[in-house]
Amino acid sequence: MSVEVSRRKFLQGSVALSVAGASAISATNLFSSEHASNKHQSTDSRIPNTITTKTGTGEALEVATLCEMCVNKCAALARVENGVITKLNPNPMFPKSKNMLCPRGNAGIQAAYDPDRLKYPMIRIGEKGKGQFKRVTWDEAYDAILNGTDKFPGLAKILEEEKDNRSSMLFCAGEGMAEHTFKQFYQAFGSSNWLNHASLCLQTVVSGYGVTLGTYPQSDLDNAEYIIMAGANRAEAIVTPDTMDCFKRTKGRGAKLVCVDPRFTNTAAKADKWLAIKPGTDLAFVLALTYVVITEDLYNKEYVANYFNGFEDYKNSVISNKYTPEWAEKITGIRAKDIYAVAREFMAHAPKAIYYPGRRSTFAMNDFQLRRAQAIFQALGGGIDTKGGLIFGKKLKLGKHEGLEPLYARSEARAVSKKDHPKKGESGYDDCAIVSGGGSWIGWRNRFLEDRMPYKVRGMFCYKHNPMMNMPNTAKTAQMLKKMDLVVTIDTMPSDTVMYADVVLPECTYLERTDPVKTFGGVEPSIAVRNKVIDPLFETKPVREILRGLTEKISKPLFEITKKYDEDVQDELEDSDESEVYAEFDLTLPFEGTQEEVNHHMVASVYGEEAAHKLAKDGVFYPDMDKFYKEVGANEHQYYPEKEKAYSVRGGKPKTPSGKVECNIKNLAKKGVDPMPVWRDEYNFTVEDGKFRLLTGRHAQFTQSGTANNSMLHDLIMTNYIWINQRVADKKGIKFGDMVEVSSKTGSTRLKAYPTEKIGPDTLFFIHGFGEESSELTWAYKNGGNDNAVIEDAIEPVYGAAAMHETNVEIRKV
Ligand code: SF4
Fold first, then answer.
1. CA 138 to CA 148: how far, in whole Å?
2. In the chain, is it the N or the C terminus that has fewer CB atoms within a 10 Å radius of its CB?
3. Cβ of residue 107 lying under 6 Å from some atom of ligand 1
4. Cα 107 to middle of ligand 1, angstroms
5. The whole model's pTM is what?
6. Alpha-carbon distance 579 to 573, whole Å?
7. Helix (H, G, I), strand (E, B) or coil at 384
8. Burial environment of residue 207 by CB neighbours within 10 A (0 to 12, 13 to 18, 19 or more)
9. Span from the CA of 362 to the centroid of ligand 1 (angstroms)
10. With contact defined as beta carbons under 8 Å apart, do 73 and 66 qualify?
11. pLDDT, tens only, 406-452
12. CA neighbours within 13 Å on the CB side: how many for 242?
């Protein structure tokens, strides 16, 4: 989403804002009352279709929306009877979700009707972390954030004491369509400290592909003939339409699937070949594949000649380091002959061959280099920006809307800690070489706890994010939250993190709000919107309205503090009216107007009024949709005719600034990072006697801790079990269902055992998202084991991501 910034001053060290165009649209134009009231009538997001229903006896309304039960954002049609959502059906019009709503998506109803959800604003009255709150009005909650209570200080005190250093407040957010809205608050507030989920999630894969190919591409599984799926468990971890493509269409028409995983997963069961690899050694596997392809001259010479930078350097490195399959066999545990076979088969099918980039978290310390090596290997076959390979796709434009990014003279730059005297070739930061937009959560937390901050950070705003459950070393995260003077959480559920809040602001669920309109790029690009299905229940509100109320309360009082300490503002006040100066610091500005009005404007300004109406009604829009979209078979739809699909948008040219695949990035060396992917001895898989490497992962019926309390999903997966090799379990006298304790230097957790031959003797596995400690969660409370209570805080060295598979643990029957 692009944003116009009304005041062209940027905070040093703040997260880069996407700024499109040179001229700002004034807020007055965008939200003038005449304009807005006209639009308001015509942009009711609930333009329902009247349908008959099987659930009740009468008519029902049908509202187009988007699922938020995981990151995929499939399109849904919600059936509403007498104001109650009785069913969620798939919306066939959305190319991304192809008439599919998975079991988790169906269970979205329970998100709205969960009896445990947050219902009212609350403020803390007991000891921090004990979850003792009292119900208050919205105004009282906003007042507590501004002025504090006898239990905690408010923003006014904190900013007064920190002399208007806006960076004394941290802002963090989980993934979601309204993350953008919350980020507007962060930018207007003027802090430089932003942390999002990236460093606990896709940071290294996005960055590894980003610096090598210029983007994190999508996979055209529909047309691929050969797929290597390594460390991605699509048959089990996330069942989206892509998954269906892979296992129904792709496999159905005879494409080959190679699964590389330490565990025999459901994906391995469906694959043509399963290669059991030692954890953290995928990089050696890819380097050996590359060795075969280079030494046997199997690569696409034309593509390499046109679109590679530094190929000769990389070739020499791979050959001189002797990354042979025989070398890799000793490291990975995969037989050399299998590595030869996979390399040859992949190139025989290239460019319709995919080394699947994966959507998973960072697992190993070498993850960034692994992703670089994967991207280069893929490009050696020429399968870039082409049918059946990795694709860039097209993205449909959206209009712009108003943002605010004032400059506060006293606001400090981002709280990273630089090494005092970095040696040549060493990273400039304590925790990692490169500080990305989303930051290093784990590095930031540890610096804060160890008093290694360049200035005091006193509090945080936390939106739709549960760092207590989602970040390794839960005990340290609890310490961090306790040490914060002011913690404000905006959430739908009383999560473990909410238990540590001083002020709790209850957001409504995704079925009760309209979110910022979103454009979805790909082979078949489209725009889709999450429409409000029912009005918010209890006293909950959408985050946009929450922030409007909060900023109305805090904007002027905080400006008074700015006036006291900000010399620039004092100078401006000498020459201008205070109202003019204040307009540039008016925190309420980004939240004027309704989300429906903003969405309407962003679509109508590019595609016209009719398109905006169509989007609000159908939930999906793309130009020529009326002409292109049709049902072509049982559960088969055409979104674009074949010749209109954006398989190739750049003729194969990478999106890097050079237009080349970057094999040897010298700038990385300046930051102490290997400029080319190489293997280092410290990457070898080692586990001491009597210990096990702990692996974690996802399940298709659970989205991390976000769905842990959903009782409908508990019908599908009650709890998590720890996978332990059958023979090891026999030796230890552990049987199925026995309670075991898993422990590391970080902490311990308990869960039931699942002895199996599907995992090796030196490895354990269990699913993330279970074992919450919030007693307000009926279904999730102490249900199963919490992986992050045990996972140590290993910080991946390039972007500071949390490396989730670097912890060795002990296990005992209890
Ligand atoms: S994959 Fe399932 S949970 Fe995820 S967005 Fe789609 S329907 Fe919702």
1. 14
2. C
3. no
4. 10
5. 0.92
6. 9
7. strand
8. buried
9. 22
10. yes
11. 999 999 988 776 665 555 555 556 788 888 888 899 999 999 999 98
12. 21
